[in-house]
Design brief:
Number of strands: 28
CATH architecture of the largest domain: Sandwich
CATH superfamily of the largest domain: Exo-inulinase, domain 1
Order of helices and strands: HHEEEEEEEEEEEEEEEEEEEEEEEEEEEE
CATH class of the largest domain: Mainly Beta
Oligomer: single chain
Strand content: 35-45%
Helix content: under 10%
Shape: flat
Strand order of the largest sheet: 1-2-3-4-5-6-7-8
Amino acid sequence: MLRRLLVMACGVACAAAAFAGAPPEAKVQGLYEGTAGGQRKLEVRVVATGKRQYLVLVREDLGGGKVAKVQLTGKTAGDQVTFAGKQGNDAWAASYADGAITGTAGDEKLELKRVFRKPPSLGKKPPEGAVVLLDGENFKQMVRRGNEPWYVDDMSKDGWAVWEVPIRTIVAQQPKAWPDAKTTFPEGWELGPQRRRVDTVVGIGEDGSIRVPTGGMNSRQQFDGSLDAHLEFVCPLRADQRGQGRGNSGCYLPNGEEIQVLDSFGMETYEGGGCGGFYRYKNPDTFDVFSLASLPPLEWQTYDIEYRVRRNAQGKAMGKPRVTVYHNGIKIHNNYEVRRDARKGGFHFQDHGNPVRYRNIWVLPIKDTKGSL
C-alpha cells in the first residue's frame, strides 16, 4: 500500500512538473481570428479537452456557402503549447504565446489572435413593464426549489455549507413553552449534537450573478401569453468533461419547453442537446456539429427570446407557441413552432450539478393578437 501511495504521489508530482510554467487552459482556449498567408481569413476555436490538451477547429469561409475546415490537435510539454495537423498534403504547425498562435499552414505563414466577442444585448436593461426575475439584489421574484430559503452572500462565502442542527427539550414531559417567533429558544431546550448539511451559500458576484442553486430556481410570477425574455449566463470551464457534463443547465419556458444551456463551444452532443437547442428534438439553425453561436466557457452569453401565443375569440391561449431565439445576437430559431401547447406557467432555470451562473434575467409580457401570431 505504501508503495502504491508513493507511486501515486510521484505521478501527481510528475504531472505538475510536466506543466510547470505552461499557460493555463483558460488562457489558451477560446476564439481566435487571423490569416494564413496574410490573405486567407480564418476563424479558429481552440477547445480545452483536459490534461492541457486541445482540439483546434479552423474554418475558412470560401463564399457561396462553402467552408474549408481543418482540425488540429494541441498538447502541452513543459512551458510550451504546440499544435499540429494536416489539410490535404499540407502540414500545419504552430505554437501559443501571449494570446496569439503563430506558425505555418503548408508554406504559408499562420497568424492568429484571441478575440472576445461581446454579445450586442449583454447588460441590456429591462424595459418599462418588464418583470425582473434576477438582478443580483432582490430575490423576491425567483423561488428556490420547494420554496427553500435563499442563502446568499458575497463571493467569499460561495459554496459554504449550511447546517441544520436539531433543537430538543431536556425533559421527558411536555415542555412549559414551545419555540415561536419571539422566543426561538425557550428555557428547558437545548441544541442536539447531531447536524446535517442542508444547503450551500450562493455567492453574489460583483456583476450581480449567482450560481444556479441546488434544485434550480423558478419565477414566482406565472405567464400565460406572449412575452419577450432576456437572460445572461456563463458556463464553467470543465475541460475534462464531455457532452452533457460541460456546463449543463437549461431555461424552461412557460409551456414547459427547455432551451438548453451548455458549453457547446466546439463540442458535440446529441440532437437538441447543445446550447440553444430545444431539448432532444431541434438543434439551433447555426449548428455545424457544434454551436457556431456559442462563445467559449468563462465568457458571458445571452439569450433573447420572443415567445408568441395565439388566442381564440374568447381570449384563451390556443395551439403551440412560436418562438424566435437570439443567442449572442445570432438568430438560432426563427418563428419556430414548438411541440408543446401554450399554457400558463413560469420560467425554470435548471440545476444539473454544474456551476453555471446567471444574471440580468427579465420578462416583458406582450399583448397578444387574437387569432394570429
